[in-house]
Amino acid sequence: MADAKADIGVIGMGTMGANLALNIAEKGFKVAVQNRTAEKAFAVKDDNPELADNIFPAESLEDFVKSLKTPRVAIFMVPAGKPVDDEMEKIRPLLEEGDVMVDAGNADFNDTVRRSQAVEGTGLKFIGMGVSGGELGARHGPSIMVGGAKDSYPLIEPVLTKIAAKYKDEPCVAWLGPDGAGHFVKTIHNGIEYADMQMIAEIYGIMRDGLKLEPSKMAEIFRDWNTRELASYLIEITAVNLDEIDPKTDKPMVEVIVDEAGQKGTGRWAVIEAEKLGVGATTLEAAVAARGLSSRRAERADAAKLYDKVEAGQPQFFADEPGLSELESALVTAKIIAYAQGYAAMAAASDENSWNLPLGTIAEIWRAGCIIRSHFLDDIAKAYDKGHTVVNILQSPDFVGRVAKGQSALRRVVAKASLAGIPVPALSAALAYFDDYRRERGTANLIQAQRDLFGAHTFHRFDTDGAVHHKWPAV
Ligand SMILES: NC(=O)C1=CN([C@@H]2O[C@H](COP(=O)(O)OP(=O)(O)OC[C@H]3O[C@@H](n4cnc5c(N)ncnc54)[C@H](OP(=O)(O)O)[C@@H]3O)[C@@H](O)[C@H]2O)C=CC1
Ligand SMILES: O=C(CO)[C@H](O)[C@H](O)COP(=O)(O)O
């Protein structure tokens, strides 16, 4: 059918774009595909003959636009930043009133706000949409967080509903708010993903350096944990990672992998935005910082030599007790605290930007498809579903009991790891946040006194209204 038109188009045939296009084609939609290196677009069709009738590769952007039904929907799946601006710039003159540009890559939500504003009044529409689930998610069902032009959402909703992951038949996709709302939520998703991964890595560190367990034994433990409260994709893949044997050396794969974590920016964006909003997402921050420090491997090796005589305590501290259920309980508790921080950042951003983010719906669409998918997210969804305002997950009746019960395990694990010199930055950040959050009388009174002494910044008294300045002794 030479003159059939595509229902939707995808630009960028990398890992995510190609798989998203195949997912769309498989669900019965006709999809136009285009790529900077044009052969890749044609390869997507050639390599998937069973879906070839639904895939329309284009040599150029002009051909791509011509092959789309009107109003046209063009999805960008290219790296964040300049590539998105460049692609938008190139396609804009080819589009007409009512056509929609969709950035489905990861994006700094400030860029998404700017791009939304740039199309205002032009007749074109812009949607910023976070897609999570990696390669397999894109191919078989991702979680999709949509933001931007609400009036254009109905144009893509039928496709998104079909291609999204399903949680008990419910599609994991929703329009979450205007302009940058979708990309902000995806950014916080990734920040939580960083914290989740860091905490799992810290528990792995305790198992490896404290309990001296073999990776295959650790895999067994993670598989067991995956049957209870911690059941999640990240715990599941951790067991797979730990069980894998390197064909070249016959050693466990994790032992031949260099201990330097990569990062593409989304975790850092989450932390920056949380700080801007005055919401300390300390577990996310610890995770980003730990990735940064991991990449300074030579410097760490030098420091290890400098401090090799330092008494770090007794690693066997862990060895004389199984402690596994304590580790499990500590991880569950820290995880709840990390999610509470991510949710607090979303709540603050929602107020700040008047987005009215549906926090319960966000938990619902994270239950399947995305990297942080877990049963636990269903608990969060239920906490929001009860109609009452959730000030903070740590104050939700559904979680208070769990945190109160698990905090002593977290406390003991952090204390033991610290005494043994095993770093647990995210777990200890979770514990410190919890202790600070639940303390009625804090210590900021002293900070206020210091600020007033050196800068006449004023402070509030319990017994007087309004800000006052005290005449401190001269120092
Ligand atoms: N990989 C993942 O697990 C996930 C990635 N994402 C996000 O999806 C987006 C795409 O990621 P991914 O598919 O992994 O990336 P890839 O590196 O696999 O693919 C990138 C694609 O973008 C194209 N591209 C790169 N630079 C430019 C440019 N300057 N102008 C036009 N096209 C360009 C490439 O074309 P060419 O073939 O010519 O090089 C390629 O098709 C990113 O925003 C990423 O953060 C989101 C969720 C998960
Ligand atoms: O968005 C994702 C998952 O949700 C991508 O896989 C992203 O690349 C992960 O971040 P990083 O590369 O920084 O670990």
From TrEMBL:
EC number: 1.1.1.44
This protein's record includes keyword Transit peptide: no
Keyword flag Oxidoreductase: yes
InterPro entries: 6-PGluconate_DH-like_C_sf, 6PGD_dom2, 6PGDH_C, 6PGDH_Gnd/GntZ, 6PGDH_NADP-bd, 6PGdom_BS, NAD(P)-bd_dom_sf, Pgluconate_DH
Gene3D superfamilies: 6-Phosphogluconate Dehydrogenase, domain 3, N-(1-d-carboxylethyl)-l-norvaline Dehydrogenase, domain 2, NAD(P)-binding Rossmann-like Domain
Pathway noted in the entry: Carbohydrate degradation; pentose phosphate pathway; D-ribulose 5-phosphate from D-glucose 6-phosphate (oxidative stage): step 3/3
Reaction(s) catalysed (UniProt annotation): 6-phospho-D-gluconate + NADP(+) = D-ribulose 5-phosphate + CO2 + NADPH
All copies of domain 6-phosphogluconate dehydrogenase C-terminal, residue ranges: 182-473
Keywords assigned by UniProt, alphabetized: Gluconate utilization, NADP, Oxidoreductase, Pentose shunt
Top-rank taxon, per record: Bacteria
Entries under PROSITE patterns matching the protein: 6PGD
Subunit structure: Homodimer.
Family per similarity comment: Belongs to the 6-phosphogluconate dehydrogenase family.
Protein name: 6-phosphogluconate dehydrogenase, decarboxylating
Organism of derivation: Jiella mangrovi
